Amino acid sequence: MNGIHDLGGMHGMGAICPEKNEPVFHEPWEGRVYAINRALAVWGKWNIDASRHGIERLPPADYLRMSYYEKWLARVVALLMEHGLITQEELASGRPAPGSPKLTPPLTGAAAAALAANRGNYMRPEAKAKARFKPGDRVRTRKLNPVGHTRLPRYARGREGVIARAHGIFVFPDSNAHFEGEQPQHLYSVRFAARELWGEQAPPRDSVYLDLWDSYLERA
Amino acid sequence: MPAQKPEHEHTHQAVPSELALRTKALESLLVEKGLVDPAALDALVDAYENKIGPRNGARVVARAWVDPAFKARLIEDGGAAIAELGYAGAQGEHMVVVENSATVHNLVVCTLCSCYPWPVLGLPPVWYKSAAYRSRAVIDPRGVLAEFGLQLAEDVEVRVWDSTAEIRYLVLPERPAGTEHMTEEELAALVTRDAMIGVAKARAPEGAGR
Predict the structure, then answer these.
(1) B136 at interface of A, judged by CB pairs closer than 8 A
(2) CATH match for A125-219 among 2.60.40.10, 3.40.50.2300, 2.30.30.50, 3.40.50.150
(3) Is the pTM of this model over 0.80?
(4) Chain A contacts of B149, Cβ < 8 Å?
(5) Which of A56, A126, B12, B150 registers the highest number of CB atoms within 10 A of its CB?
(6) What is the 3-state secondary structure (H, E, C) of A31-62?
(7) Under 8 Å between Cβ of B189 and B58
(8) Assembly ipTM
(9) Is the Cβ pair B132, A151 closer than 8 Å?
(10) Which one of the listed residues B115, B130, B135, B163 is annotated catalytic?
(11) pLDDT one-digit tens code per residue, A25-54
């Protein structure tokens, strides 16, 4: 979707303000929101792409106004309700609906310490699709404007670049985010000259690398 | 380099904020319904506040500086080499390490969200997730670096890595001059989080002329 989250190349967002000795979480509630998101993901009701899309779907004005973990809170509440894990009434009252069963969390305290070190996996080498491109090939990104989730930013659509590296076969976020299947396909690191993206004012030798799925690319 | 333990110097508000109250209400509901175990939440917060952070990445960089064979493996297969030091996990499953030199400077960003290599750098700082950094890093990386106090010569090639997929990037900064005598542990202390994102260079050793 052409959402506010797709920020690359925008102007007017102000100065970057690094904070000295920044804590991991500024307030305890931020840590709880982070951990609630991680722990609920273990239920497997949604995937990482649906989760990212949950933040992209926030109204643009809210997206810019809210703090980072405020967005994570809004996202997880939306996912909980969409997937039927809680209801609006339960959220409003703060109490489980009368007679609702008590579940057993899939992630225990002991397992959570290990979860941080657990490796997820988004590769799908068993799909065995043949790679269309190899390093050195010239490609052009397609001019796509899907209303759903995509990882092809606006600033890199319809641009010509060179395959820098083939990463192997990965889950395709554009379909996975909408529970329309993993559609595993090759992922490539593509090098774009800064001038191809931004025009003549860009330094001649600078470049931007993006990781792009096969569906985003055509031969140049 | 700040210690990995969080500093609780900031004053806690006497009255919980609306967000703190909403979070507390949600957690209570989720616990009562059996959707989350509060002990699991405690363990996750503890892991990222106290165990997983940029000291991990600094050890990877220092090892690469002193051990050419390790550095070669790190560039060839970042994830496998990093796992040799015991670091792996969520958001570090597919690691690529990019090396800075006298002629190439690498900078990492996620323009679409906040992708960041958790096992080696911990959770990202607020500025990395800010609209300001995400919007500008790709169109004006030299301006961003200058804002961080790093002026690059015109003949240095800037490579920006926009983390659009599940590949996570770690910058291998240049080893500072005058560090030939230093131990791996001493070297690790020179490697900042910012140097591994690419908005800074590794720190010069104490007493080195600047």
Answers:
(1) yes
(2) 2.30.30.50
(3) yes
(4) none
(5) A56
(6) HHHHHHHHHHHCCCCCCHHHHHHHHHCCCHHH
(7) yes
(8) 0.97
(9) no
(10) B115
(11) 999 999 999 999 999 999 999 999 999 999
